[in-house]
Please model this.
Amino acid sequence: MNRRLSWFNVTTLSLGFAFLYLPMLILIIYSFNASKLVTVWAGFSTQWYVSLMGNQQFLDAAWVTLRVAFFSSTLATVLGTMAAYVLVRAGRFPGRTLFSGMIYAPLVMPDVITGLSLLLLFIAINLDRGIFTIVLAHTTFSMCYVSVVVSSRLMTFDRSLEEAALDLGCTPFDAFRSVTLPIITPAVISGWLLAFTLSLDDLVIASFTAGPSSTTLPIRIFSSVRLGVSPEINALSTIMISIVAVGVVSASLVSKRAIIRQRQEELAGVRA
Amino acid sequence: MAQSKPQNVFAPWDDPNEVPLIRFRNVTKRFGTFTAIDSLDLDIYRKEFFALLGPSGCGKTTLMRMLAGFETPSEGKITVDDVDVGPIPPNKRPVNMMFQSYALFPHLTVEDNIAFGLKRSKMSRDEITARVTEMLRLTRLEKFARRKPHQISGGQRQRVALARSLAKAPKLLLLDEPLGALDRKLREDTQFELMDIQEKTGTTFVIVTHDQEEAMTVASRVAVMDHGRIVQVDTPAGIYETPNSVYVADFIGDVNIIEGNASPAGEGRVSIHYAEGAQPIIAAADHIPDGQRVSFAIRPEKIVVGTEPDPDRTNQVRGRIVDIGYLGNVSTYHLELPGGQKFSAQMTNARRLARRDFTWDDEVWLSWTETAGVVLTE
Amino acid sequence: MNLRRLLLIAIPYLWLLGLFLVPFLIVLKISLSDTAVAIPPYTPTLDLSGGWASIKEFFGQLDFENFIWLTQDELYWRSYLSSLQIAAVSTFITLLVGYPVAYGMAQSPDEWRPTLMMLVILPFWTSFLIRVYAWIGILANEGFLNQFLLWTGIIDMPLQIMNTTTAVYIGIVYTYLPFMILPIYATLEKMDGALIEAAEDLGCSRLSAFWLVTLPLSRPGIIAGCFLVFIPVIGEFVIPSLLGGSRTLMIGKVLWEEFFSNRDWPVASAVAVVLLILLIVPIVLFQRNQQRQQEASQ
Model:
């Protein structure tokens, strides 16, 4: 369809995206500010990046966060994919309603409740808090996100592909491994990325479930932000925003190119 | 019809010594309270091209899925080669299926799709390669071996699906609406290709279709299904010429149906009184009790339309032309009998159109022989 | 049922039972307990070694004292009410801001749309905390907004925005905007453009075509977007604690302080239980809406 942008739409889009991006832009610009006073421009400088690199507390916290995010997202991807498969394919079994309820509930559960309840569990079973408990907590809520992403892919998946595999001699497990899994892989990967980001991002649940030696980056940022704006945090934010921006933009370019290539191949196929 | 070879007619169903490959014995399938298949018996023989024909929801797909192993009968027994296949999972059955959506694995090449089932058998790599090459040749896909399914056309995809399901040389190949996704021209070509491949490989084919023309073209025998039951099993010619019920007569091709009361009219004949004051229809039929309510079914092309009654034919009825449908090779005449019944007749246009001697609103004579139609009691 | 199927179901099931349902039952139990100066800081604790009698005694000690306490101290019900109010108002503002953006996206040329989509999703992937933090520098008394307004001469005294409810509204609208835009855009994008042409052909003006056709048809997206903002905002903690200052009451923050500052676990648990009960109604409504939409699209 041929749609034309009216001045009204141009204005709303510009204002909307300015609202979304201006705060981050200011943050980035002022991370290069020479002054410690964050709102007064005193010339270009990268000193805050240098001092950030020397800040052992932040580096330790970043390392903890990355490990937690890696382990929890990997575990969550395995469990979430299993849960998605159970939801979409396992048919009826006792307690199915409870199961699907437990998959969807954490998505809308406020972080404070999830964090509090997990902390109380860890205390009740006398589990020392540390990286391990954060991983358990993050796995639990992010597996639900993974299973939502994967199950929506499974729902649009042509069931007869699996039946064809069975028909051609696969055992059900074999059919999953050689047909289903390769086809849903993109969804599984985006589930993993989502789980990874959620874990990187989480402040509240980590605050409840972390031990004294396992401070994550968001906890560290939060405690220093409470004292006010600091140029070091600006520098850190800039780094995190650029990593995400590079990641998202390149992912979308890759998928765009894949779509274009597929279209070209299809055209070639029709001509042949 | 394709199978009407005068010598050496293929008709194992008429041979009492033949053992059927597949036997359904009293098979019932229920989904909850819905009965999809209702105590059904059916025999299918080796090398048959057997068509299951019926409207959607008649149970034909369920029947096929029970053969493939995706559904298990609620009651009754299905045997393949005298082995009860009930407890055998789909991956262990000597049966392969070609899916309606083709179900080609999108992440594998044409070659790998065809080799998929072979890799799960105890074949050596060389044997697999040889078999894949053979299948590619059979389906004329050599050039596309390394393409992915989304890179080939619909007709090619259909052939890949066929090659993949034939690769394991199954005892029985099931085809679920195999040509449904193709356009008309391609479908007709593919029908003959399917018959050719079936003959070459000697595999027993069971095809599910809702397209009566397709069933008539490809099949050695057709089973017409309705509401989980088989209404009639016969050769295409048998189904067309001697339907056993109004349902079958109506489902296959065009037909005129006239209801009336039968009375005996000499040896092997009945007369059917269908309207007050009208000459009764004389038709060949056996064992019809006097006064039985019957339906007389006659195909439009069995009726001769003329300005004069045809003295050679027993039945002669007056009618008025309501409409003429000109189809080029034939014309269909829509007529009304004096009693108000609608009737259609079909005549080949042997003469040029301009020289046709009747037109709209003309009174004409319809004539047909005693054996042109069938008398149905249900 | 074979072993593989059993394992496939059992592993995620047991995980969720153990780490989602059981913890919540513990919260429920502690909310019925009493505060104590002990580790853990509440009584009773379940001691199974005493057998049946101790279990009986354990249940005998549970009571609704903490819930009664919640109704008596006005801090709690005021923060519940204020959470609801803040959530409702900010959802409405987010809708007002988000709808035109979603509409503009749906009207834009095909080749722009993936990019615009990406621009909406990008903030979602960046840290929530950082996005809230970015506003501190803008809204502070000597922040960019006040500097700008002073420079233009609109005001001659810095506005106190930081540490007010206004700052919380701004923070919420900013961080939750993508959740509003995306579902609305999804419904608008699916809409057949010929409908608008048909409406105009039948005599509607541009505006009345929008009002009579576009808006009603985008209702499912509006409802979904509103719930996606409203539900999480009720339990929001980061935004009120960074932007709202001590005067903004939100229940998530109260729970946090009850737990970490006052170390009153039973009351914190009771607050959590009530918060969850509060959330059940919108969650159920949201589920219904989603289900109806799914059925409609099939």
